[in-house]
Amino acid sequence: MPAKLNLAVTALVFSVNVLAAAPLPAAGGNEHVIDTFEVGPDVYVRALTVEKSTNTMWVGTSAGVHEIDIKTTQPRNTFTRQSGLANEYVFAVGIDSKGYKWFGTDAGGASRYKDGQWKTYFPMHGLADYWIYAFANDKRGDLWIGTWAGANRFDIKTKKFTTYVKELINEWVYGIDVDAQGRVWFGTEGGVSMFDGKTWKSWTHKDGLGGPNPNNLPASPNTGLGTRSRHNLTTQVAGLPSYNPNYVFSLIAAPDGTIWAGTWGGGVSRYDGTAWTSFTTRDGLAGNVVYSMMRDSNGVFWFGTDNGVSRYDGKTWRQFGTKEGLLDNNVYALAIAPDGIVWVGTKRGVARIGKTK
């Protein structure tokens, strides 16, 4: 079993238990779960963001934010409403080109922090919505923000917000990334949209986004797709899996120009500029709901699903779940630290996956 760390939000307690390496398969690398950080039995880790300049891992949870020293794995700070956060439930953490930390909250807008100073943005300031789910920096240094009412571009110089709603395939935005050409990609509840600075283009399941539904799983009514009704992020119907392939939880633009989108029930889809190719549990993916994804410096993809983590090197798949040491199989956040260790955010806390030395 792996090592266990304890990071309690309210008590600021951080303890560690080191886990023994699990048996390793012959293929797919020699990584294993090396330790875990607990944040509370009913606390969710929704965001993991690396700040390389300070060697920091920012951990956004449903009860506040932790600032963790990556080298020592010790907490430097924990932030709650008393510190300056507008809301403790943090779904996204972004770092803009000026070094400001942005915390996207559940119904509390976006709180910005640097050098002990806080500022919170609401719709009255130009923010599209109070519900914030994604951040990304573009080549100009501006910050893009994904909300439940469209996307914002925050001009880093003028500090003005521009809002895009009708241009998107759907206004509920969960994932944003910028490709090597400077194009901005958006994962939404209704598909994927792309903005090249002048024109917009979108893709849905009809265009190949999201894998098939061979088990005839039902679509979940728990979605704001086409509505303004609020909803939670539960993906099951009566405790069973469901299928909404247009619904994109996560998205990354890879250096080779491909776009990867994690869907609800349709697995992960790759766009090569011409067509979409999907990978599901039939191909080796751990689960068909893909909440999070990252690509490491070796070109290996890591997918956080509703059934653990999948490692994919382009040829082989490897899975990590609770049997391998994760605290829970629903993986909402992933981050690759500068040392190559993969940080995995779930309910109860964070696990770290690394290679045997």
Report on the structure:
A hairpin with a 2-residue loop joins strand 17 and strand 18. This protein has no helices and 30 strands. By secondary structure, it is mostly beta strands. It is globular, with a radius of gyration of 19 Å. The two termini are 17 Å apart. It has a domain at 49-57 and 85-324: YVTN repeat-like/Quinoprotein amine dehydrogenase (Methylamine Dehydrogenase, Chain H, 7 Propeller), CATH 2.130.10. The model is unreliable at 9-27 (pLDDT under 50).
Provide the fold topology.
Blueprint: E1 3-8, E2 13-15, E3 31-38, E4 45-51, E5 56-61, E6 64-69, E7 75-79, E8 90-95, E9 101-105, E10 110-114, E11 117-121, E12 132-137, E13 143-147, E14 150-154, E15 161-164, E16 173-178, E17 184-188, E18 191-195, E19 200-203, E20 244-253, E21 259-264, E22 268-271, E23 276-279, E24 290-295, E25 301-305, E26 308-312, E27 317-320, E28 331-336, E29 342-346, E30 349-355
Percentage beta strand = over 45%
User: Strand count, sense and closure of the main sheet?
Assistant: 6 strands, mixed
Give the CATH class of the domain at 49-57 and 85-324: Mainly Beta
The order of strands across the largest sheet is: 2-1-3-30-29-28
Ends apart, CA distance between termini = 17 Å
Quickly give the structural class: mainly beta
| Helical residues, percent | under 10%
Number of helices: 0
The CATH superfamily of the domain at 49-57 and 85-324 turns out to be YVTN repeat-like/Quinoprotein amine dehydrogenase
Per CATH, the architecture of the domain at 49-57 and 85-324 is: 7 Propeller
Q: Radius of gyration, Cα only, in angstroms? A: 19 Å
Q: Shape, please?
A: globular
Order of helices and strands: EEEEEEEEEEEEEEEEEEEEEEEEEEEEEE
Unreliable parts: 9-27
